[in-house]
Specification:
Distance between the termini: 18 Å
Largest sheet: 7 strands, parallel
Order of helices and strands: HEHEEEEHEHEHHEHEHEHEHEHEHEEHHH
Strand order of the largest sheet: 3-2-1-6-7-8-9
Oligomer: single chain
Low-confidence stretches: none
Strand content: 15-25%
Mean pLDDT: 94
Number of helices: 15
Shape: globular
Number of strands: 15
Amino acid sequence: MMEKESALLSGTFGLFNESYPPIMDGVALAVRNYAYWLHEKGYNSCVVTPRVPGYKDNEPYPVYRYTSIPVTMRKPYRLGLPEFDLALHTASQNIKFELVHAHSPFSAGLLAARIAKDQNVPFVATFHSKYRDDFQRATRSRKIANLMLKEVIWFYEKADEVWVPQKAVEETLREYGYKGNIEVVDNGNDFATNEPLEPIKQAAREHLGLTPDERVLLFVGQHIWEKNTRLIIESLALIKALPFRMFFVGTGYAADEMKRLVQEYGLSDKVSFVGTVTDREQIKTYYAAADLFLFPSIYDNAPLVVREAGALGTPSIMVAGSTAAEILTEQVNGFLIENTPQSLADKLQHLMQNPALIKEAGHNASHTIARSWESIVQEEVLDRYLSLIRRKKH
């Protein structure tokens, strides 16, 4: 059925988002995998995103970039200005879209909504982030943040379908005031594999020069306080007598302060800041080498990094009751803590003394939360896209 429909569709699936490589975050990876697997399945796809100076795209599908300026407080993110980009305006007029899919409600999303209206094609919008937290931090005013949130809800109300990446995220969107239908479409994972994990993990540890008796802890993501990075460092200070290595991968406004905090606690010989890693094989090495993935964020909705770690047999520790932790079951495919440094320290100490618990949870995580992007796109995304197109045409 899909092969026949692919032949009949002459237009393009457009994926619109504020972030895209070289800016690496979970949403950027989701957009990239949507576009890649749509292309691999025989459909025309493209990405529309802000321009990053000096970066050249090398994708098998078109990437249309538009004018942007840096966001000072959120490096390396860019503020897109598509309305000032004549080349993009001309290009978008020459593309026949079958459907547009926005992964943010800002410049890229507003552009997607306008194109959908102009070309009378289906408009899908995925809700990924807790925008109220971002708005309040940027404006330092709850009143202004709530006004901005109303604009976000207005955006999602314009969509033909609104998607969330896991069920618990629906609660956040409802809390913000959205009353329409919501569809759950899981995130995929490009590290999912049927190969035995032990040889992969052993090779990764050897590559990083890690000794067999070291417990390896990992965090991947933006280095911002909202992700509870301070809690991680403070918990490590409570167990610094134990043999462990901690890797922080990523960057963000709090990176320098995090490094200073590590020095103050006397953890410099145990904690390494790797910086941004854009090479997927390199980040795979860190995931595979780790024993535990520390992600106590109560800011995130559906973090892709937890699924990536799980795919390589590395279970996560998350805060019980947080939206992000919905996919974990205590001591089955991950571990849950209270939102305190002492709780995380106690959990780490217990697990380091019981490595069999870590191994079992990692095995279960690889089978329960690590589904491939190819499977997600082929079995869920395409089916919903084609259904929307049929409904729109009839």
